[in-house]
Automatic annotation (TrEMBL):
It comes from Nonomuraea fuscirosea. SUPFAM superfamilies: Periplasmic binding protein-like II, Winged helix' DNA-binding domain. One of its GO terms (molecular function) is DNA-binding transcription factor activity. One of its GO terms (cellular component) is protein-DNA complex. Signal peptide: none annotated. This is DNA-binding transcriptional LysR family regulator. Residues 3-60 form the HTH lysR-type domain. Transmembrane segments: none annotated. Keywords: DNA-binding, Transcription, Transcription regulation.
Amino acid sequence: MDIDPRRLRVLREVARRGGVMRAAEALYLTPSAVSQQLAQLEREVGLALIDRSQRSVSLTPAGRVLAGYADRVEEELDEAKRELTRFTERLAGPVRIAAFPTVIQHVLVPAMRDLAVRHPKISLIIHEIYGQPALQELRLGAVDLLITEQDMSLPTLSQPSLSTRLLYVDEYRIVVPPDWPDPPATVADLIRLPWVAGEPTQACGQALERLAGLHGFEPRKVHVITEFGPALALVAAGHGVAIVPTLALLDVPEGEVRVSEVRDVGARRLDAVTRVSRTRSGEPDPVQAVVIGAIEEATADLAASLRGRLGEPEKVD
């Protein structure tokens, strides 16, 4: 019998929440995805785990028994990994990380170089995915570590099953085309300008909505762009202004866009998010701890570089 621990987590949530719909909300999955995971788990164990004869979904006796083991299975697996590291002279193993492009380029790649020297048996597996899909992957165990971004004005992600660690506060800048004769100097100058906006679910999109609400204007969103590269290209070509984080400006050639004098636009926070350790000792996975340490060092080096170049704020602990 080969049981996937990720599907056990789904079964556990169904038992805890009293149904598929509530479990789906807790896991940030669709009800259909939860049902598919449960059906696959039933095939793995060869038993009916869900009673579908009633209008409301409930667990069968076998389902309740298996759900009761879910926490213990996860705890034992985590403890086993910790114990096995004692038999090796060096930490080893893969760590699967979900992140977005600017962090991959400017934080994770330098961290990988450092780990290759100090811990050559640790390998990072990077998946470019973010937002709710990435959170789903973390909850289900498909990734071990998630790097998130969100506007600093929003509450920090706080859930009992997740641990959130602040990595960096990335100040926003307003960028304008380089050849505009009268670049905006105040927020009032921005009100009637065309915007190259971010998606409302992204930190920069949230920052624009916050700025507009604070100053009482409706931004004229001519373009809505997900990635910073295309957004900056549109700004450089004269098609509007944009809010971007400082990290996005690192690879922009000098003179391609102009950084506005408008400040106090806010910042986004970058966080490292992991599942809470379920080991008996309560200690984190040692391999993940080393990886997070390398990421923090890479972030600190980047912050120092940015302070020298653009006067960025220091990392907040």
